[in-house]
Amino acid sequence: MSSMTIARSSIGLHFSVLAALASASVPASAQVGAEDRRWSTSGSGERVTATDCTDCGDDIGLLIACKGPGRPAEVTVPAAAFDGEVAETGTITIAVGGERFRRAARTMFLGQVGSTPVFDLAPDDPMIDALKSGREVEFDFEGNMATIGLSGSSVALSSFAAECPWQEAKAPAAPEPRGADTGASNGAPDAAPEPGPASAAADGAIWSSNETGDGRASLVFGIPETDAIGFSAECRANQPAQRVRVDLSVDYPQGLSAGSPLTVGVSTPSGRLAFPATVFADSSESAGVRIEVGLLDPLWAALLPAGTLSVSTEAGGGSARQWPLAGAAPQVAKFLSLCAGVPTDERATPAPTPITTAIPAPDPVAAAEGRAAPQAPPQRAASTANAGIPAVAPKHVAYDCSDGSRLEVDYYLGAAPADVALVSQGDDRNIRLVAAQSSAGSRYTGAAMELQTKASTALLVRGGSVLSCFER
Questions:
Q1: 404-433 residue pLDDT tens
Q2: Chain centroid to CA 269: how far?
Q3: CATH of domain 347-471
Q4: pLDDT tens, position by position, 308-322
Q5: What pTM was estimated for this model as a whole?
Q6: How far, in Å, CA of 258 to CA of 188, rounded?
Q7: Measuring CA to CA, which residue among 118, 133, 30, 37 is closest to residue 74?
Q8: Cα 27 vs. chain centroid, distance in angstroms?
Q9: Cα 49 to Cα 55, 134, 199, 463, distances in angstroms
């Protein structure tokens, strides 16, 4: 499980479908690809839906719901639900027709069905063509698996795309005055501040990360030496298991006061995430919404690619705030390094020492007799023996990392006196790390590298940098 907590909230499914799902009972890992099932659509316009069945009743394996003009559709997969009410976000992997797609997902609680994964589907997503032409689709969300047949999906998805106005531009809403004098005051500010839209970057807004001098570190997007701040994160230095407070200067619906709960959506080129949030109003110049996430949360990886960060509350109350992500990646890495307590001076960190096997010296007698010289045993097997790892089969996991690299780890579970991980990335092969105490997930450490894992997410800390990786 990943560390981010998601509040149970409505995500705009039609009431009748939602009620049917909530009263259903679907196994956590299911195969719903029966030959007699065919995809279908119902409704029209903004209320159109597509499902993996016809006259489904309460037997829905997958549902796609239109969300309105200019907005991606939402895909709900009851067949891959967790039992009970489980708050979770992470990456859902979709395999269809020999292709694999990975999307950011969150859960929604649907009664007897359990906590169902939900993710966004854009009208130009290449997954749509794969779903139209495939025979079946497999979903994997944090270990919960489901296989769904695709009979009739081509016609159903084409009908859905023709009805849903998801490619139309959303008409801008007329702004409503905020913070007007009502003649009464309870001592709290009436309105959120205006930190500036995306064009603030042209006014000098930048991403920066610093130690604050009181044992804390901060990550900020704003104009230096001013109160014009859009994104602000703060952590305690050298505490890898902590949760980080993130303040977002966005509009929130009128009528809410400090401490009111709501849900905030964060969109980047990596996908969309939803977070439970609360309104904060520290002063008339500092207000917005606040979330808390761990250092292994998908949010940090989402800030790394170039593009735009878009933040808005699901309940509305103002247009989305957008901030450029140019220059964010090195500052995010620095911030996570400060929070996790890893060295920031690469020169002070010794280079990682891979486990190697000595190659036997040539035997002159064997050479004179024409016999083959002895060969070194395979590197991985010898590395395992030299490292004192018990003769147990390793668990091999491959990760895709935010910088485009591939991380491969062999986990030797049950080793004495502690579990061992052999880490390979790039030219560095079989770096030996030993399990260390961790209050959240698993943690492996070595002389110059640290690996933190939880569910399908991994953080590789080395040389003063932090790399976010996700299981393939």
A1: 788 999 988 877 778 888 899 888 888 888
A2: 12
A3: 2.40.128.200
A4: 888 988 655 456 788
A5: 0.42
A6: 8
A7: 118
A8: 25
A9: 13, 20, 37, 49
